[in-house]
Each structure stands twice: as structure tokens, then as C-alpha cells.
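Lecture notes, unit on protein representations.

Consider one protein chain, 236 amino acids long.
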Amino acid sequence: MVKLTFACVVVSILFSVGIYLTRERAEFVAAGGPLASRARVADLGRVGWARDLHGSFHLINQGPNSIVIDHVMQSCDCASAQFPRRAISSLEEFDGAFTWDTRGKMGPAVTNIVLNYTEIVSGTKVPHEAILQIAGDVHPDYYFEPQCLEFLRSESGSRRARLKVTCDTPIKILQATPSHPAFTASIEGDAVVVAYDRHRLDAPSTDLIIRVATDHQTVPTSTLRILVVNSLEAKL
């Protein structure tokens, strides 16, 4: 009777531990192969322009074998990540840290972190890949509007448009340089004034890049990519 009671207690404990481990592991989401992460996307929410936004991923090796992370790659130079470069045992949990640079970004932004790693199966290396993401809604310190310019044909063949800067803290525009010879750019207070000579551009539309220099401390230079529409039928 005592042996039976003891066996029941042991079974009960093992069952409880099994439920606990199942619940714990259920909190992780598969990231690729035996690797799983507490969250595949590290969402930083609303952020501004910053050089060093920090965060981390919490992962687990859910497979029965050890793994080794060989390479860590990012989808852009705006991020860097560090993960353990050692053998990670089965069911071992670990952290990876990242730094994200949001300067120059605008609106929803996502950067991929790709882990290339190998699983050691009976002495054989089996390659795997896991993909994690850093995400945020970037509200820039300043930006220019509008994003699209429409120039109408006039008798003189020229037209001007204002790109007004919007910012929380006032900045000074120092210089503006357009990429196409049909356009000139000048500075008038808090705006870049773009002048266009239609005789030098007959295409219906073009991508215009304007490089703007400011006295902003975090992002002193900005690249504006603007779609220019040349309306041939509209009248002034």
C-alpha cells in the first residue's frame, strides 16, 4: 500500500512537471528549425529618430540535440545583433541583444535578423535558418511635404513648388541639391523651393532626389525622393 501511494505521488509530480514544461514551452513561437522565440517580432512601438535603440530576443532550443549559431545577418546596416557563439544544449534558453538605428526612417519599419545555425545530430551538422524581426512605427524628427510634385506646363516653361519642413523642434535648412539638371532648389525660410524647366524634361514623370543639409543634431542630412509629375494637358 505504501509503495502504491509513493508511486502515485511520483506519477503526480511528473505529470505536474510535464504540464509546467508544456506551458512554459508553449509560450515560445517557432522561428525556424528547432529554434523558437518568446516573440519573433520585437515591436518597439512608436519611436523617433535614434542612433541606438536597444532590445533583445529570448529564445530556446526546443530540439533534442545541441545547436551552434554560425552567422548572424541583418537585412540592412541599420541594425546589429549579438547571439551566443557556443554550443546551446537541448531545452536551453538564451538571449540575443540588438541595436537599431532609426535615423532617416519614416512610418512602419521592419528589419530582419537572420540566424544561420547548425544542429549536431549524431556527429553530423544539419543546417537551419531562423528569422526574427525588429519593428517600430517611426515618427521622424522632421520631414518635408508634399511627397509628390505636379508641375503644369506654362508659357514660360517654368514652375515652382514649395517643400515645407514639418518638425517638433525648429531646424535650419542649410542647403538643398537636386539630382536632375532640369530642377533647381533654393531655401526660403522653413521650405525648399524647387523650380522646374519643362524644356529640359519631356518625360511624363521622374524620380527626383534632393539632398538637404540641416543643423539637426541627429540627422543633419536627409535625402528626399519625390515623384515629379509633368502634366501635359493641364492649364494654369
